[in-house]
Amino acid sequence: MENTINFQDIIKKSVLRMDQFASISLIDTAIGLLLSGLLGLFIYFVYKKTFRGVVYTHTFNITLVAMAMLTCLIIMTISTNIVLSLGMVGALSIVRFRTAIKDPLDIVFMFWSISVGIATGAGVYPLSILGSLVVAATIFVLSKRQMRDIAYLFIINYHDQANDGVKYQLNKLKYTLKSKTVSKEMVELIVEVKIKGDNTAFVQDMSEVEGVKNVSLVSYDGDYAP
């Protein structure tokens, strides 16, 4: 008499065996969580040192550390059982990240943190360490390169009679006109200027032009809606 094995028997014998949860030892779990936490702190350090936005968010940076550890824990959990992995994928699919991302580079750090958690959770420790070092070096090099030529918004409020003096001072700079508002006897000019280091002497020169009422120099990240 031939033995017949149906689909239900396969599930019971191979997939739903609860002893599969013991395939990961406590030592492997501790190593994975410790390494993901250390790499998360490394990401924390890189984010803090390379942040070039307007407002630094400490809680977002802490989230990067926790995200690496939690992702590692999830990968370790779902790797022990096929059914559990499918159920967790379905549960996580309903999660939505609804917080607005102000800086596109923040998305890179989020994916970096998740990738570290996946690699450490899967036990591919060399990949997570080497990959983090390469990503960090790339971010440091590119962010340092950008700092050599920083963009600012130069806002000038002046009377009509100061028009020639303002143009003379602006011709000394590399600038791009962003907005010009003309009202009764007053003009507001907004230009983008790129300077190196702390060379802001042109602000004082512009403020000394006769007829200039007010000047402001604002940090600028490249996005502007007039």
From TrEMBL:
It comes from the Bacteria. The keyword Transmembrane helix applies. Keywords: Membrane, Transmembrane, Transmembrane helix. The keyword Transcription does not apply. The chain crosses the membrane at residues 21-47, 53-75, 82-101, 107-140. This is DUF4956 domain-containing protein.
